[in-house]
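Continuing the series of single-chain predictions for the mutant panel. This is the parent chain; the variants come on the following pages.
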Amino acid sequence: MSRRKLRVAVFGTGYWSQFQIPAWQSVGAEVTALWNRTHGKALRSAARFGIERVFDTPEAVFEGVPFDIADIITDVEAHEPLVNLAARYKKDVICQKPMAYSLEACRRMTDNCRRAGVWFAVHENFRYQPQFAPVKAALDGGAFGRVLHAHIQLKSPDRAIISKQPSLAGMDHMALRDMGPHIFDVTRYLFGDAESVYSRPVVSYADIGAEDTALSLLVMKSGVPVMCSLAHRFHYKVFVQCEKGVITLDDDNVITFESDGQSRTLDARTRTVLPYIPDDDWEIHGAHVFAAIPRCLEALTGRYLKNKPAETSGDDNLETMRTVFAAIRSRDTGTVVRLDDM
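Parent structure:
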């Protein structure tokens, strides 16, 4: 029996939508309608991706075309009003990360969707990058024993990325707001929820002035300390010291497992070429980043069609965002912040 085609209405046709819309189409979904604040941009995206319906207002989308899920790919400021609008119309909804710019707004969004009986997920796709699943499988398998400590490093916006998304340059707490959701969600995916966080950001470019890198020490509820680095360059992405060995994911996405005096490697590099990704974007972000988008959408679709909460449901992502805002509070106060105090 074939799976029914999911119908998606997209709100927002900015930078990341040019990757998300064709990713939806590549996993078999039908994008039925578009809305964007600047109508002309929505019309250009519709022509590019073969989408028939473009609307002038968000309300017109909800009232004018049948669909299953609203996918919100707008700037962060529009996330809460559009998620709440979906809840009002009793429409299931997916929202880009970060969920919102305040923890209170994140809570309102999840509460409103829960009260409305609306399926709510966050498009937090970094945990779906192919290199992280084998690391998690090795940790969960138990052969390496108890985790002693770990270090995770992800790329924060450098000049090239900021040139593609200039709004980042003016973002308050930029590294923590933009990449904090990603690195803390990957950390939660691998090691569970955090108990406390201490964070210090750094301004790398004096002419830009944004806090574009950051270092955060998380202590997980399991007691494991995890250093989370948002940096421009590094030699490995994950290092895990366990009782019975070491797991290292290098910056080229090759994993080395060392245990009992023996070592083996697993090549987790992504070689699939996605034809809708421009060469310069491919070079800036990397194949693993773009591979995660359809993988995430495939996973969200599978959970949705089975009427199950998404792995990155609103409730789950609320815990990631609690960690983000705890890190921001730590930056502002210069203290360790416990998540129970958020």
